[in-house]
Amino acid sequence: MQGQRKYRGNSKSVSVSDFFGAGQDALGLEIVSGQDEMGRTISEPAMNRPGLALSGFLQYFAHRRVQVLGHAENAYLLSLDEATRVERIRKMLECRVPCVVITRNRKIISGITELANESRTPVLKSGMITGDFVNRATIIMEDLQTPVMKIQGTMMDILGVGVLIMCAPGIGKSETAMALLRRGHSLVSDDLTDLKMDSSGVVIASCPTGIRYHMELHGLGIIHVPSIFGVASVRGRKTLDLVIKLARAETLRDAGPDDPNAVVAMLGSSVTCVTIPVAPGRDIAGLVEIAALDQKLKKLGHDAAKELDEKLIKRMSEGRD
Amino acid sequence: MTNRTTPDDGSSVLSRELIIENVLGLHARPAAMLAKLASRFDCDISIKKDGAEVSAKSLMGLLSLEAARGTKLLFSVDGPDAEQAIDEITRLIESKFGENE
What we know:
The complex is a heterodimer of chains A (321) and B (101). Chain A has two domains: 14-145, HprK N-terminal domain-like (Udp-n-acetylmuramoylalanyl-d-glutamate--2,6- Diaminopimelate Ligase, Chain: A, domain 1); 148-309, Rossmann fold, CATH 3.40.50.300. Helices cover 37% and strands 26% of the residues of chain A. Chain A contains twelve helices and 19 strands. The longest helix of chain A is centred in the C-terminal third of the chain and has 17 residues, at 304-320. The model of chain A is unreliable at 1-9 (pLDDT under 50). Chain B is α+β, with helices and mostly antiparallel strands and 101 residues long. Chain B has a single domain (22-98), classed as HPr-like (Histidine-containing Protein, Chain: A, 2-Layer Sandwich), CATH 3.30.1340. In chain B, strands 1-2-5-3-4 form a five-stranded antiparallel beta sheet, covered by helices on one side. In chain B, strand 1 (3-5) and strand 2 form a beta hairpin. In chain B, helix 1 packs antiparallel against helix 3 (82-94). The longest helix of chain B is centred in the last third of the chain and has 13 residues, at 82-94. Classes of the chains: A alpha/beta (321), B alpha+beta (101). Chains A and B meet through helix 12 of A and helix 1 of B.
C-alpha cells in the first residue's frame, strides 16, 4: 500500500471504456447498458463489493471504484421489497460510481438498468465467479493505471543488469550498444525506450512496438539486430537497474567529484546513475559493462569502494595511535 | 602551517608542504575530491610522503599514501598553471575537505 501511494500521484487516468477494452477478453465483459457513458473515469484501481452501501450505510462508501454485484449482493437485493430495493440502488448510484459490473451472469435485477440510465452509469456483466473477477480485474486496473513514459535512451541487458544508456545525440549511444551486442549482451531498445512502473514500484523498460529490435548506426542506416547478432541478442523487457550517462570529458572537467550515490528519478523511483566521461581512446562499451557488473556486486551487498575506504580509514587510525 | 618554497635553481617547480587536517585522513571521498581538482590543471602535480611519490591526479595513488590526520605531504607542481593549482589545492586541504569533526 505504501508503494502504491508513492506513485498514485502520477498514475494514468482510466475510463470505463479503457477498462472494458482491456477486460473484454480477459474478463468476458459485456455491456448491458450505458454504452454512451463509458467515458467515466475510474480513479481507484480496486474493485468494491457494495454490500454495505446497498444496506443503506453510505459512510466511507468507496464510490470511486468499480462496483461489483456478485451472488451475495444479488441475493440481498432480491430479499428486499421492491420499493426499498429501488431506493437503495438509487442511493448507491447517486454517489456517481464509475460503473457497475454484475458477475456470474446473474439475471439482471429488474429496474437496475433503468436506474443506471437515470444516473447515466454504465452497467457491465461478466460470466466469471465474483472472487476471480475481483482478482483479475484489479490486476488489469493496476496495469491500466501504471505510470508510463518514453525516454531518449538505449536499453541493454548486461548479464542480468538492466542498463539505460543516455547521452546527447552524436556522442555514441548506438555505437556503444553495438559494441555491447558484439560482446554478447542483449538489446531491449535503441534510442527510444518505454518505461513503466509495476505495482511494486519497479521500473520496467521495453521497446516501442513499431521499432522493436531495430537500431540505427550513423553511416549504415537501420539494421535488424536479431538478424545480425542472433535471437539471443534481443529481449522484450527488462527491469531498469542502472542509468549510465555518457558525457564528453571536457564538459565534466568542472563538475564536482564523482558521487557514488548519485541517482536519477524515473517515474518517481530512484535509480542509480553513473556518468562516464567520453574521450578518444576510452573503451566506452567496456566501461559500461564494468559499471553494470559493479552495480550487480553492490546489489549483492559488496561495495568495493566503500569497503576499501573503511579498510583505509581503519589502517590510518591504527597508524596514528 | 604551510610553507612555500620556490627553488632558485631556475626551474619553475613550485613546492609546498601541506598537512592533512581532517579527522579521517585522506580516505576515499577527500582523495576523490583532490584527484578531481588536480585533474583540472594542465601542470604536473606530484606528492611526496616518506620517500613515496605519486601523482595528485591519480586516485589510487592518493589512497596508497594512507595519509592520516597530521601527515605532511610535499606537493611539487610544475607547469603553466602551477600557482593557481597549488593555491586551490591548499584551500581544499585547509578546508578539511568540508568534513566536520
